[in-house]
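Quick one:
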Amino acid sequence: MTEHEQKEVVQQGIDLIGQYGQLYDYHKKMARYHNQNYQAMAGKRLKVRSPKSDTMAAITRKKIGRWPLDLSYPEIGGLKDLEIQKSINELILKKSYDLVENQKKRSRNFMQIRGAYEVKLNKRGLLSIYFTNYVFSKGTARGLTLADSLTVDLDTGKVYNLKDFFQEGSNYIQRLSIRIKHQIRVGKIQLITDFHTIHSDQQFYLTNQGIVIYFQTYAYTPYYYGIPQFTILYRDMIDLMIADGPLPRLF
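Output:
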């Protein structure tokens, strides 16, 4: 393929992604709507619903496979409240499209964008999904992977941030940071910049065993580490958790 043909192929890919722009804008607006209208109510629902929920979601793998997009994302079903189910699915799509948008900002002359996901937790009314997005660009020796995640209450539609799991005023940030520093030291993980602390809006996902904190490529580690991830076991954080919050459901 000549350089001119390659440029045409890349432009065709950009044009195709543009065709998804209206769909992306729709899901973005819908996700914003659901956040504004459901998140305020989610806290009230949590107070009246049992924290020992047994709700699980049925997961269907969906795909956008028109070149240069090769995106896989989950669609949930089986919830009693169809409005909450719809709101969660809108948020899932927004996460997938947001990663594409972030890749477009970071990577030029891209040849293909691949999106994947892993359902890390789906039980006791909690769903936690980890998304990755990989792009390979013309003229580069290696691609770039970005990651994002979504942790949501299946009974209320509430999207959880890290701070939502811990008592107000607790030193959970310090505790988590100390655990991560320990794992870096024991694992002899090479750093390109010193790690001091996580932040209140730190990216994470949940598993059966614990909270997984992760950092983007190049944030602290060389490229070959990919997305570094650190698991902090629930049992190491019990004293800081909100007693009637979501995490005690898991043990």
